């Protein structure tokens, strides 16, 4: 049993010029302090305490000689020219050594800190120190220090040694045996003289005659419990669970691909018996079809009406060998720029005439050569790889620096972990939060494999079929799909980087590629039926860069600066109007450089008067108008909400804008697809249902807030909760698992949504 002695002193003197000095000399060191004991707070405020109590450095009994007496010298001195009364009391601590799984209650104050000894049991390699209190304030600090004398147990020196974190109502520190060669450590509890470090207010003034009352207010009742942490076997189980859970998606994909292969083999055999000439395999779904026109897919009475097919014959003419290279000559070269091959004057001459038709069909907006458009969209893939490399490398370097600073300084207030479920591994403080992001990387790579398979099947089909069958189905351009797969993988990488040391200054690492994912999904959805007029990769990524820049500015200035929210709301509303104009007029509304400043506004007012006032009873493009009105109302609502409430989590606010717009557009697309008498095949239907279910479950765990860098570290720890899965993963880890699966199913929805159109002529597929 380790013996510890506590010295209590009290002096009624409040004369700061002549304090009473106490010096305690022991065999292992010297400890000294003065009464009144002075603490300094914010803005050089001083707090004086007449009562001081300190625990002396403990000594262990020598087993060979048995218990032995120890001599302690206490020197008391003062330079005062008059007598000063003081009280000195030395007591032996009965409960100095903490026991495993046994709660211990005590009281501490700024001038009366406490610390206790803990020794690792033989079969325990890691423990969690859990400290709780019923009161939020006063603010306190929990520190774990090695067995070294003197012990740093005052507010001004507790950060000099060991690992520490601030605390209001609860704190938790994970300690490993390997970090303490002596297999024992001190747990130190210090009460701070002010509460500003924990988010509390600072007293306006501290009059000298209320020092005793202030002393009484700064006491705090604490309870400490030390429990064993998880064993190494749990780490292995968690890693197996993480990888096997997502490798099962690979197995499911192989099964689905095999079933499709067997089905296509039997269909090929049947088609060869019934249609000996002109049969081809359409890429994507693998359906065998004839090259003859199919008219049954567009029933009579369709809401889109009908126009003369000769107006959309340009798409078939451009598909002939006279206007482009053979289908088999398509390459994936990323060297060619869009400007190098996008030169089709016949398209430029009549595109405005075609796009002004009331009812547009896919053949009207897929007139460019397939090879040209495919290479245009491959630029998305190569650009996002470049962006990912240049973005990820400095991020990885920065978070490694963060983790190094935490390990060297011991300051656990730098990173906002869920300390009740933070399992270290090596130099990483919360390995579970990093491991749970493996799903994004694995499922992103699986999505790339699925897209690659479709791409290969499409190329083979293009080599086999005749030129007229190129007028069937949605044009197959996979560049955006490849970019989405890379974005999903990078979201896993950057989310893991963020969770190395989560805090407000690097939260954009976790959201940057989420912006890109949402934006790429909207672009892909729009590209499906507008392949010739979709945004270029350069303009799209430039727009994402502007969004990320605004996100960074919002994190820095968006907390209290009203001017930032005014500017951002104006940009948001104007961008919504500009984008709506481009979508409504199919890119035909342009601002020419020769227009004067007044001419631009005059022309815009003229278009507004012609299309909205003269035709207010029936807009020319009703479906587009309904979508854009709802979309603008949603975006304006977001702008007003941000301007009024000014949410502190600006990055999540922008992400919410992206997600709401994506969901709105996807819902509109599916509704219009069903209105057009198109079908939802079993696989996209399953993916839609799975997406909705998994997203609902994922969002439930997302809103289980376990920490918040919007608050102080001590306030954030009030939200910490224990692990819920395998004793290793917390709610936020489950969010990582489910969100990865939800994003994967969302991508599959976009990939398979229009598989039912593979046998439909493009001049029968409406545009919306």
Automatic annotation (TrEMBL):
Give the compositionally biased regions (Acidic residues): 333-342
Biased composition annotated in UniProt, kind: Low complexity: 310-320
* GO cellular component term of the entry, any: lysosome
Going by the UniProt record, its keywords in alphabetical order are: Glycoprotein, Membrane, Signal, Transmembrane, Transmembrane helix
Compartments where found? Membrane
Example of a GO MF term: RNA transmembrane transporter activity
Membrane topology per the entry is: Multi-pass membrane protein
Q: Write out the transmembrane intervals.
A: 238-262, 380-400, 434-452, 480-501, 507-526, 538-557, 563-585, 625-644, 650-671, 683-703, 734-753
Q: Where is this region: Disordered?
A: 296-342
Family, according to the entry, reads as follows: Belongs to the SID1 family.
Protein name according to UniProt: SID1 transmembrane family member 1
Q: Which organism is it from?
A: Cariama cristata
